[in-house]
């Protein structure tokens, strides 16, 4: 089960990186609009761009793969077997034998007291 989750996670990470690369390589539709106003050789301003090219189809496939991997990880993450140990980082960090601190009765009880020094008024009265 853990091997399957690791495999899905690797496929998800690779599809995300490939999808980021494909999106960065593609040029936007706004680039053709600027070219049609005199600086390029674009055919029409809002004309048909033709069928989807290889980059846009590859991006759609990577996005679908990423989405399916995300759903798979969510499913396997929420449906753990009873035989699998529930070993999480928080369970390992909290010691089981440490007692819980008792709550303070009031705000004044939570203030630490300073050591009491000899008061000068009491020593002046003795002289």
From TrEMBL:
Lineage: Bacteria, Pseudomonadati, Pseudomonadota, Betaproteobacteria, Burkholderiales
UniProt superkingdom: Bacteria
Organism: Roseateles flavus
Record's keyword terms, sorted: Cell membrane, Membrane, Protein transport, Translocation, Transmembrane, Transmembrane helix, Transport
Principal location listed in the UniProt entry: membrane
Keyword Protein transport: yes
Residues annotated as transmembrane: 54-76
Places the protein is found: Cell membrane
Job description of the protein: Involved in protein export. Participates in an early event of protein translocation.
Protein name: Protein-export membrane protein SecG
Family of the protein in this entry: Belongs to the SecG family.
Recorded topology in the membrane: Multi-pass membrane protein
Keyword Protein transport appears in the UniProt entry: yes
Gene behind the chain: secG
């Amino acid at each position: 089960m853990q091997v399957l989750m690791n495999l899905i996670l690797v496929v998800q990470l690779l599809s995300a990186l490939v999808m980021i690369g494909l999106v960065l390589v593609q040029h936007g539709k706004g680039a053709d609009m600027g070219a049609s106003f005199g600086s390029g050789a674009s055919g029409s301003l809002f004309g048909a761009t033709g069928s989807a090219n290889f980059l846009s189809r590859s991006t759609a496939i990577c996005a679908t793969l990423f989405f399916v991997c995300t759903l798979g990880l969510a499913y396997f993450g929420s449906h753990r077997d009873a035989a699998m140990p529930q070993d999480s980082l928080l369970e390992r960090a909290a010691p089981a034998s440490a007692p819980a601190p008792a709550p303070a009765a009031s705000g004044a009880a939570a203030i630490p007291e300073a050591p009491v020094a000899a008061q000068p008024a009491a020593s002046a009265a003795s002289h």
